[in-house]
Amino acid sequence: MRVALICTGKLELYGLKDGLTAAFPGQDFHCVPFATTPGGQMTPFNSFTSARLPKKILQEPDSSLSELVGATIDELYPVRKSDLVFVLDDLELCNKGNDAVVVKEFGRAITRHLQRIHAVDKFAVKSIQQILRDSVSFHLAVPMIESWLFADPTGPSKARVPMHQLSPLLQAGCDS
């Protein structure tokens, strides 16, 4: 199975593929970069949670969110490049507790993107909607990069982060 990872952080872009491949041998994980430099350096997508999202519905999506949604759909339609797509964004601390709004805004951005497609090709939208339902999963890493490091209890020490700096930030059950 070919699984695309669309990530908003460098750690995820460069490390998640290897970690998931080790955990799920036999699966073909690949990262979809926002851009690749001429030297082959990959750039992750920008997070759309860097500023606190308002509780009210946004009229126009953040361009970062539009790019994330566009890449998600492009991975599956019109040419199917992957069987599954995992979209991974770290929930920035300014949006802690605001995760329901973030998830809703991601869904609304997909709806807006589909409306633009409908204006050009109204017959494609139903197919794309079904493909998205069957093949896309959106995940928030909470709190941000620490979610990945704490999945490995030795992660912070491997990253040379002293435990006394982390202990005030750690709370049981805060990862989602």
- Please bin the fraction of helical residues: 40-55%
Discrete helix count:
7
Order of helices and strands: EHEEEHEHHEHHH
Query: How many E-type strands?
Result: 6
Largest sheet: 4 strands, parallel
Shape: globular
| Low-confidence residue ranges | 171-176
Please report the first level of CATH classification, the CATH class.
Alpha Beta
Q: How many distinct folded domains? A: 1
What is the name of the CATH topology?
A: Rossmann fold
User: What gap, in angstroms, lies between the N and C termini?
Assistant: 25 Å
Specify Rg, calculated over alpha carbons.
Answer: 17 Å
CATH architecture: 3-Layer(aba) Sandwich
User: How much β-strand is present in the residues?
Assistant: 15-25%
> In what order do the strands lie side by side in the largest sheet?
2-1-5-6
User: If you average the pLDDT, what whole number results?
Assistant: 81
Question: Which structural category fits the helices and strands?
Answer: alpha/beta
